[in-house]
Amino acid sequence: QGAEARIFRTQYLGRPALIKERFAKSYRHPELDRRIRHKRTLAEVRAITKCRKQGLDAPVIFHVDFRKCIIVMEEIKGQTVRDTLFKLESHPDNNQAEKLMKDIGTSIAKFHNSGMIHGDLTTSNFIVRDSGELVMIDFGLSFISKDIEDLGVDLYVLERAFISTHPRSEELFKKVLNAYHATSRVASKVLNKLNDVRARGRKRDMVG
Fold this sequence. Notes:
The protein has six helices and nine strands, in the order ββαβββααββββααα. With about 210 residues, the chain is of the alpha+beta class. The strands form three sheets. A four-stranded antiparallel beta sheet has the order 1-2-4-3, with helices on one face. A three-stranded antiparallel beta sheet has the order 5-7-8.
C-alpha cells in the first residue's frame, strides 16, 4: 500500500494481474476526495494509453471502474530500475547500464513528444521486464502539457531521484539526457530549461 493506492495481486482471465485501488481519504471532504481519486485514475488510464500509442511498453489495462477508482492491469514480471542499479553497483556491467540509461532517456522523450508529463519520475517507476524491455509505470500524477517548464521539471525530478537514491550516478544520468536529446523534438529547449530549474533548486537549497 502506498500513500494514494492499494495494490492487490490477482488473476484476470487466467493472466497475472494487479488491482490498483485509489482508496478514500477520511481527512478530505468526501466530494473533493471523490474528484481527486477519479482525476488521478483517469490520468493513469490516459497516460498508459498514450504510452502504448507511442509504441512504448506499458502495462496492459484489463478493466477500469471509475466509480470505485479501480484499475485492473497486467502484472509486470521483472525488477525496478532502482533495484537493477543497486545490483549493478555490486556487480558492474557497463553495457547493461548504458543500455538501460539509453532506454530510460528514449522512453521519457517519446512520452514527452506525445504531450504528456509523468509527474513522478523515479527509478522505482520504471520496471525492467524479465525479457529485458523497459516499462514506465505509476502515472497517477501525470498530466497533459507541452510547456517547456513542465518538461524540464519532469527531468529534474528524475535527476533528484538519481542523486538521492544512487550516489555517484552523475555519469549515468548524463547518458539518460544524451538519449533524451537524440529523441525529443524540443530537446535543446528542454535541456536549457533543466539547467534553469537546477539553478533555482540550488538557490532554494542555499536560502533554506
